[in-house]
Amino acid sequence: MNEEALDAPAQSEQGASEGSPRPRRRRRRGGRGRSSQGKAQGSETDEPSEAKGSAAKSSGSETKAGGGRSSSRRKPAQKKPAQRKPAQRKPAQKDKGEEEPAPKAEAPARRRRRRSSGSGAAQRSTEAKPKETPKDEGQKEQAPRRRRGARGGRGRSRQAEEKPAAAKGTRTRSRKKSGGRPRQAPVRVPRITGKLMLITERGERDQIAVVEGRDLVEHYVTRVGAISMVGNIYLGKVQNVLPGMEAAFVDVGRGRNAVLYAGEVSYDEEIEGEERRIEQALKAGQKVLVQVTKDPMGGKGARLTGQVSLPGRYLVYVPDGGASGISRRLPEQERIRLRDIVKKIRPKKAGVIVRTAAEGASEEELTADLERLKKQWDSINRKSKRGKAPRPLYEEPELTVRVVRDVFSPGEFEKISTDSKGIHERIVAYLEDVAPDLIEKVELHEGPLPVFEEHHIAEQIHKALERKVWLPSGGYLIMDRSEAMTIVDVNTGKHVGKSNLEQTVAETNVEAAKEIARQLRLRDIGGIIVIDFIDMLLQQNRELVIKTLKRELAKDRTRSQVFEITPLGLLEMTRKRVSAGLVESFSETCPTCEGRGILLTHET
């Protein structure tokens, strides 16, 4: 008993000495810093409760009686089966001990890779694949350097930061190649029949209205002395070339110089090894054959192009183009028929575009129209080779004849009605040459009221000139124009709905989308247009509004592009601007406020 009593304090001291550092080793189990001493000690280190108890009672066990000693001696005997668990873990601990030296041997390599890459990802990749060939390691060391250079790290020069990057070639031509704005899928154009074309002559103005049902959708107006230049062909003289603007200013003999951008230049020869630039094709004082694509507006001159096209009754002839196309407004069966005819009659080095008016036209009529355009182009080409510049080579006909040629289609329009005898005679004379079968659709209006008043056209024109447009449900639109864009604001107004707010807002926005498309056509608004729709929560309602707007704009002859609704509820779109709109035709800038709409009092 005395030996057992003496052995008990010795065991308690040993357990205390071994158990005191045990909690630290237990927290680091499985880590790299585990000591080999903790692995070598088996069951004695895996009894923290017994070690703590023996450590706490080590001083008192020496003076206690035999009963105390026997209790301290029995505890290890009762928990001997628990001492076998560490014995089962020893092989796993030895395996870990055998694997630990491997990372130590590769530690210098990891440190070298860490210095070269500068990120922890490369270090983790080397730990996952320690057995790699030196060739692979060398490749991995170079890859992070390339990534750093791509990010623009320390190796980036100050010159690259301070100087803006220059685009290759010209901006206008590269924009055409890259596409610029994303091209949208064409929307199927709805077929609308039963239209009316009403023409009147009132004072200095000739007005043409296109009516669908009872609604005025398009309006054309001209004034004496304000003839449009769009479509005219001139032999111009280059005044100066600006490489920094990628444009040239050309004198066409109509006052302000017109502008010709690099993307619209007709290059005769390919420049090998270099991008084509406008200063290589045009020089100051050089003669150039150009066509007007946009009238001068505000402080800007007319817009020109070197890619000439001649419009006819059924076809558009492009002398320098090889592409062909058919109007999307025609039915599919009619498009197939016309495509077969164009393949037979199209010249080899020229392009032909089939217009909407060609619906129902025979092959003989299309051939005759094409031959007439070819003779016209030969005459223009001969005139351009002799004589001085600047001077006109071809001028478009007056507004009435031009609208009848471009817009009037027998499949969509019922008739042309005019209350002017002079206009009636001009239309009949034009149709006798190009389409004699359409003369029966032209009538001279005779009645107590003018043709515009009988169809309530004047009232709709007055509403189109106002800033506020009412919707049938009680909502309204506010349309404002600025130098950069046109802004349209949608409001519920008197429309309170029936079920919930989301449905009321969606109904107002859908109704507004239809009216906005009609107002853009009627007012002939172009450029950037921003529409502030009322906020909608459901995505399906937003998609419904966009779909409605695209479907209504598909009826418009002028090209437009619609984008998605932003998180702020704004919809952005563009519409091609060719000439001044309806408001500019019936208004003048206020001389007092100069168009600002306010008067400054100068009082502070």
Question: Number of helical segments?
Answer: 21
Look at the helices and sheets and give the structural class.
alpha+beta
Using the CA coordinates, give the radius of gyration: 43 Å
> Termini, distance in Å?
111 Å
Give an overview in words.
The chain is of the alpha+beta class. 40% of the residues lie in helices and 19% in strands. The protein contains 21 helices and 21 strands. Strand 20 and strand 21 form a beta hairpin. Helix 7 (101-117) runs antiparallel to helix 8 (120-128). The protein is globular, with a radius of gyration of 43 Å. It starts with a helix and ends in a 19-residue tail after the last helix. Residues 1-23, 28-83, 85-144, 146-161 and 173-180 have low confidence and may be disordered.
List the helices and strands and how they pair.
Blueprint: H1 2-19, H2 22-27, H3 36-40, H4 48-56, H5 66-78, H6 84-99, H7 101-117, H8 120-128, H9 134-151, H10 158-162, H11 171-178, E1 195-202, E2 205-212, E3 215-222, E4 233-242, E5 247-251, E6 258-261, H12 278-281, E7 287-294, E8 303-305, E9 310-311, E10 315-318, E11 324-326, H13 332-345, E12 351-354, H14 363-384, E13 391-394, H15 399-406, E14 413-418, H16 421-434, E15 442-444, H17 451-454, H18 457-464, E16 468-470, E17 476-481, E18 485-491, H19 501-523, E19 527-532, H20 539-553, E20 560-565, E21 570-575, H21 582-585
Any descriptors?
single chain; alpha+beta; six-stranded antiparallel beta sheet; six-stranded mixed beta sheet; 21 helices; 21 strands; 40% helix; disordered N terminus
